[in-house]
Design brief:
Blueprint: E1 6-7, H1 18-24, H2 40-59, E2 67-70, H3 73-87, E3 94-98, H4 103-114, E4 118-122, H5 132-138, E5 143-147, H6 161-170, E6 174-178, E7 197-201, E8 212-216, H7 231-234, H8 242-257, H9 259-280, E9 284-286, E10 297-302, H10 307-316, E11 319-320, H11 336-340, H12 345-348, E12 351-355, H13 362-381, H14 384-394
Parallel strand pairs: 1-11, 3-4, 3-5, 5-6, 6-7
Antiparallel strand pairs: 2-8, 7-8, 9-10, 10-12
């Protein structure tokens, strides 16, 4: 009999919804035409892409011509930064971001620094929040771009995006946000929030991997990232990933239509998990803002615990979780996000991220906490540091 799997890592990736897959399947077989060709089966696919673009645009309150399909969030981040830096280099070479961005953005900033750009990496507070006043004071006459994520992928903190957008617009600086974790988890209105560019990805919202989009506000001077053909209005060459685009749009439509009820259910389970862990596991610290937080994110650090051992033991009990970003899961270094919010190395190493998805049940959440309690207790029993700590506490 197969072991039951409880999947608590939806921030890493999500399963494709059956109805999304159903909409995609014809585009692998009978509807296989290249949208750039002129015969009818191709023009039908071109129309399907146009409809998908319209659907995506509606989810963030913009118009279809501002949506450009990409291979995912990392490409969208790279495109936004590299192409904007190139296009606006004559105005200045200063970029502002934060110390807690996804590595798709941080590594792109490092690349741009090698090309002569200067990057300011803003600190965040102990909850991972950017101070808008500190951001505004960092803007210089040669600042061309501000890139700050909508919500953090590790600790779930939601940034003051509308305020950042207002500040950027007042100073005539472009504002890009990586919304890969926030998209369809919180309402996004790019016009109201004064967002100039926004990155999103399909596989975080029960859509397929290998597809995403970049929103580029009309009037933003940004050049092609992939050169070749005339696809995506000459801004992103390459034959369109038609099944992926159809799946992305279907997943976005379903996630947006059900956002209110789905996130309410996630929030209930999230708060239940947080409450039980805080009350039943000693020396556990919640990471991220308690209220300005993604509905599906739980992140704790456990003193006297090594995170990798915890994950391996949880996996042995059928629980899929992570200690941070899936993109750095092979790294032995502690999370740059947890270090940025002030955690010491030894505590940051003992972190656990649980991310809830559509279909996660309260029974599963309780099972996870029950097993986590056993794992933490067992690992601490092996730690001489914990034993010494307990003796000191008892002698007080």
């Amino acid at each position: 009999m197969d072991k039951k799997i409880i999947y608590m890592d939806h921030a890493a990736t999500t399963p494709v919804r059956p109805e999304v897959l159903e909409e995609m399947l014809p585009y692998f077989t009978e509807k296989f035409g290249n949208p750039s060709s002129i015969y009818s089966i191709s023009s039908e696919n071109k129309n399907a892409i146009a409809k998908a673009r319209e659907t995506i645009a509606g989810t963030i309150h913009t118009t279809p011509e501002n949506i450009y399909f990409t291979a995912g969030g990392s490409e969208s981040d790279n495109w936004a930064l590299k192409a904007a830096a190139e296009a606006y280099a004559s105005k200045g070479k200063h970029i502002i971001t934060t110390k807690i961005e996804h590595h798709a953005l941080l590594h792109t900033c490092e690349y741009l620094e090698q090309k002569g750009f200067e990057v300011t990496y803003l600190d965040v507070d102990e909850n991972g929040l950017v101070d808008p006043a500190r951001l505004e004071s960092a803007i210089r006459p040669d600042t061309i771009l501000i890139s700050i994520m909508f919500a953090n992928n590790e600790i779930g903190t939601i940034e003051p995006v509308a305020e950042i957008g207002r500040i950027a617009r007042e100073h005539g600086v472009l504002f890009h946000t990586d919304a890969v974790q926030a998209y369809t988890q919180v309402p996004i209105d790019v016009e109201e929030m004064k967002i100039d560019m926004l990155s999103a990805s399909g596989h975080k919202i029960n859509g397929p991997k290998g597809v995403g989009f970049l929103y580029i506000r009309k009037g933003v001077k940004i050049r092609s990232f992939v050169h070749g053909g005339a696809q995506e209005r000459r801004r992103r060459a390459g034959t369109e990933n038609v099944p992926g685009i159809i799946g992305l749009a279907a997943a976005a439509r379903i996630a947006t239509e059900r956002m209110s009820e789905r996130t309410a259910a996630e929030r209930k389970i999230r708060d239940h998990l947080i409450g039980r862990i805080e009350s039943e596991i000693p020396y556990a610290k919640l990471n991220g803002d308690r209220t300005k937080r993604l509905p599906n994110n739980v992140n704790f650090s456990f003193s006297f615990i090594e995170g990798e051992s915890m994950l391996i033991m949880l996996d042995g009990k059928g629980i899929c979780a992570s200690s941070g970003s899936a993109c750095t899961s092979g790294s032995l270094d502690p999370s740059h996000v947890l270090l940025a919010i002030g955690l010491p190395h030894e505590i940051a190493h003992g972190s656990l991220r649980l991310t809830i998805g559509d279909g996660t049940t309260m029974e599963e959440a309780d099972y996870v906490v029950d097993q986590l309690k056993e794992v933490v207790e067992w690992l601490r029993s092996m730690s001489p540091l914990y034993e010494d700590f307990v003796k000191k506490e008892q002698s007080r």
